[in-house]
Amino acid sequence: MNDQDHTYQFYFPNYFSAQNTFVKYLKHSNKYEDYCFGKVEAYYIDQENYGTRRVLPGISDDEKYRREYLWNEFTNWLKWNKSGRNIFSFSEDLLQMLSHTDVDDVELDSLKFPYDNFYLSLRHLKLPFIAQEENLIDGVYVNIEYNDNLDEESTFDFSIILDFVGDYEKYAIKYNDSVSEIFNFTFKRFNIALDKKQGIKNIHQALLDHKEFFRQEIVLKETNGDKVIDIFQFNQQLIERTIRVVINSLLYLSLPDRDLKQNYGDLPVHLSTKLSNAKTKRKKEVVEQDIKQAGFTKINFVGQNFKGIINQHKKAAGEVPTHWRRGHWRNQRYGEELIESRLIWIRPTIVNKAIGIAEKGHIYYN
C-alpha cells in the first residue's frame, strides 16, 4: 500500500463524514433530517383534518438541493457505519485487471458477499463521474437487500444497490433544480437484481432490466425531457465505466485464496502505542475495543501482491505497442460425477502486439 492508502481519511466515508460532522448526528439522525428538510409542522387541510409537512424557510433553491444531497450521503454513511464500517481497498494493478475482465455472462447467484453493506474504494482507477469532466468516482457503497417476502408482485431474490460517491454537490444542484429526486436515486445509483421468476439470472439481463425500469418509471414520466435524457445517458455511461470492476471485485472477494490483509492504517499515536504494547490476546482485545470506540476500524487491503505486475508486462514488451487481452470467468465442473461447479478467473493480460503471446493464469472460485 502507498502512504495515501495507509491514511484513514483517504476514504470517502471517513473524510466526507468528518467534513460534515455526521458523527454528531449518529444517535440523533432526526435532527440532521430537520437541518436538511426543515422541522415538521402541522398545517390546516379542511375543517376536520390537519396534516404535517416539513418547512425550511429562508434558503435558496441551491441550498435546498445541497442539503438533499447531504441527506443522501448521510443515510448512506449511517447504514455503512451501523453495519461495521467495512472498507475494501484494492491495489491499482488488481483493479485494472478486474476492469478488463468481462462479466456479462456471470450468473448472479455466483456472487457471494463478505458483508451486506460495505464500501469499495475506486479512487485508484481515476474514473470520471461524467465523461470529459474532472470530478472522479471516489468509490461505491455496496448494499445487499434480500427479499424475504417473495410473491407475485415482488419476485426478486436479492438486489445489489450500488451508490457511487465523490465530490458531486454541483451536479446535485444543477440537475435537481428541475428534475426532483432523480439525482440521488438514479443518477449516481443503480440496482442489479436476481429475479429468477422473471428470467433475470445474469449481469447482462439485470442491466437490461435496470435500463428498462429507468426508461419506464422516470424518462417517460418526467416532463423536463432534456435533463432527464441527460441523466439517463449519464447513468448508462456510469454503468459502462464501473460494472466490470465492481462485479469482478465482488467475485474476487469470494475466492478462497484471495490476497487480503487487514490493517488499521494511521492510528493516532496513543492508540498505536497501546496496540503495539499489548502482548496478550486479552489486552489486544481491550485495546481494539478502545480503537473501535474512537471511530477506527481495520481496512481490508486487497491485492497487494499484484502491485507492479502491469509494469512488468510493459517492460517485457519494450518499445513494442501493447494492448489488453480481456479476461473472463468460466464455469468448471468438478467433484463426484461433476455435479458441483466453480468459476475460474481467466485473467486479462497485456499482450505484445508483434508477438501476440500473453502469460496464462487463472484463479479458482468456490
Features:
disordered C terminus; three-stranded antiparallel beta sheet; alpha+beta; 2 domains; single chain; 11 helices; seven-stranded mixed beta sheet; 366 residues; 14 strands
Task: Please give a structural write-up.
The protein has 366 residues and is of the alpha+beta class. 38% of the residues lie in helices and 21% in strands. The protein folds into 2 domains: 8-259 and 303-307, no CATH class; 317-366, no CATH class. It is built from 11 helices and 14 strands. Strand 11 (328-334) and strand 12 (340-346) form a beta hairpin. Helix 2 (29-37) packs antiparallel against helix 3 (61-82) and helix 7 (203-219) runs antiparallel to helix 8. The model is unreliable at 355-366 (pLDDT under 50).
Furnish the topology, listing elements before pairings.
Blueprint: H1 12-19, H2 29-37, E1 39-44, E2 50-55, H3 61-82, E3 87-90, H4 92-99, E4 117-121, E5 139-146, E6 158-165, H5 169-176, H6 182-187, E7 189-194, H7 203-219, H8 225-253, E8 260-263, H9 269-277, H10 281-293, E9 299-302, H11 309-317, E10 322-325, E11 328-334, E12 340-346, E13 349-352, E14 362-364
Parallel strand pairs: 3-4, 3-9
Antiparallel strand pairs: 1-2, 4-5, 5-6, 6-7, 8-9, 10-13, 11-12, 12-14
Helix pairs in contact: 2-3, 3-5, 4-8, 7-8
